[in-house]
Design a protein that fits this description.
With about 425 residues, this protein is of the alpha+beta class. The chain is built from 14 helices and 10 strands. The longest helix is centred in the last third of the chain and has 44 residues.
Length: about 425
């Protein structure tokens, strides 16, 4: 053990000496390793951070929520959109029937959405999310009201023009969000609407699926006065009771939906039941493709870097030929010489990898000030990077190390 540590210490000193004596040559040769490790750590850390942020966002949608839609939420190269586009859109009466036919449902809401404007006097804001919903929406989607109140049953019953707006909208129009409550604004087609509440600030998120800060929530009946139902991306949101599992709820919904659509046993489903797992699989497919691209760039850089380190080691063996001969003459074994050069090659790669790691840490610090999610580097990714450096270093130095280990001591000492 002591002998190995002594060899490792000697090899490390040699690697540092090589870097100091030939800074430019060594740095340019290690540039491929540096860039490869930079790509691996930055891609894996970013993807890991994005996945964590998105998983948290997906959980906020409700782990027991199922979205009934004509479209399946998935990422598939063979996505049969031509089949899904022919499906009928979900309808409001279907939501009411589901409530009656599926006793294990806790909440069910019909939802329409659009992107339009909000006006106050001469001020106009575009790109505003409209959500026309029914009573149970607030039970399924958890959010808080910062000022005023949420929609009441009477608002839904009479399709009143009462609306709840997002914090950012209220801030942009009224400067102080609390001043928004009680004001009359105009929506699409100059439709007047009364602000009765402001949603508490949600802040930025990775997916921003609902983006409540820039949204308007209104009764479904009022929404229909501005936009045709079939053009409002209709969907049904359902949530099972406390002890009901997603598979059990899907099974009940399948039977009810097939009955409502009057499908025969041989006919395929003409609707989709999308749950949180569907969102997760959809995003996993996207992340997998990004990972492949990152690994491809990193692999190419590491191959280039490996040849650069191998070149350094060939030159090093040539420069130290007489030293190698002297070591062998005084009793150094082949294994000792082989270990020294392999460890030196590995240490050179680790130095290149450390430069790449430092660059990633600096970039991470900068990006965290701009991204809507925090980028972090887990210890397992750092361990993977060190392992890759060691592997590439050993692979790059194995041929030069064998050449050095097999030298004839007499011939080596005589060389100049």
């Amino acid at each position: 053990m002591f002998r190995f540590l002594n060899i490792a210490a000697t090899s490390f000193k040699m690697a540092i000496q090589e870097f100091r004596s030939n800074k430019l040559r060594t740095f340019l040769s290690l540039l491929g390793i540096t860039f490869g490790i930079f790509c691996i750590i930055s891609v894996l850390a970013t993807i890991n951070s994005m996945k964590t942020a998105i998983q948290n966002d997906i959980k906020s949608l409700g782990s027991k929520t199922i979205f009934i839609d004509k479209w399946e939420y998935r990422n598939d190269n063979n996505y049969p959109w031509w089949k899904f586009i022919k499906r009928p859109v979900p309808k409001y009466p279907e939501m009411k029937e589901l409530k009656e036919r599926v006793p294990i449902l806790a909440n069910a809401s019909f939802m329409l959405s659009d992107n339009s404007i909000i006006e106050l006097g001469s001020d106009i804001l575009t790109g505003v999310n409209y959500y026309g919903v029914t009573e149970d929406f607030a039970n399924i989607e958890k959010f808080e009201i910062g000022f005023g109140r949420y929609l009441q049953q009477s608002d839904f019953d009479h399709s009143s023009n009462s609306i709840v707006i997002g914090y950012s909208l209220a801030e942009k129009i009224f400067t102080k969000p609390e001043k928004a409550v009680g004001n009359l604004v105009r929506l699409k087609n100059q439709k007047p609407a009364l602000i009765i509440g402001v949603i508490a600030k949600q802040g930025q998120s990775m997916m921003n699926m609902w983006d409540y800060d820039n949204s308007i929530i209104m009764p479904y009946g009022f929404f229909k006065q501005m936009i045709r139902e079939e053009n409002g991306q209709p969907r049904i949101l359902v949530e099972g009771k406390e002890n009901v599992s997603i598979p059990a709820l899907k099974e009940e919904l399948t039977g009810a939906m097939r009955s409502i659509h009057k499908l025969t046993p041989r006919q395929e489903d003409d609707y989709a039941l999308n749950d949180i797992e569907s969102f997760s699989k959809f995003m996993d497919g996207i992340f997998a493709n990004i990972n492949i691209g990152g690994w491809a760039i990193a692999a190419l850089s590491l191959v280039v870097g490996m040849f650069g380190v191998a070149n350094i080691m060939f030159v090093t063996v040539r420069e130290r030929t007489s030293q190698i001969g002297l070591k062998k003459a005084i009793g150094a074994k082949r294994g000792t010489i082989l270990s020294e050069f392999l460890l030196e090659s590995a240490f050179l790669c680790i130095i290149g990898g450390l430069i790449g790691m430092i660059a990633v840490f600096i970039l991470t610090t900068i990006f965290n000030t701009f991204f809507s999610f925090r980028v972090f580097i887990p210890p397992d990714i750092i361990a993977l990077a060190v392992g890759i450096c060691l592997f590439v270093g050993v692979l790059a130095g194995i041929i030069p190390a064998f050449i050095a280990a097999r030298m004839d001591p007499v011939v080596a000492i005589r060389s100049k």
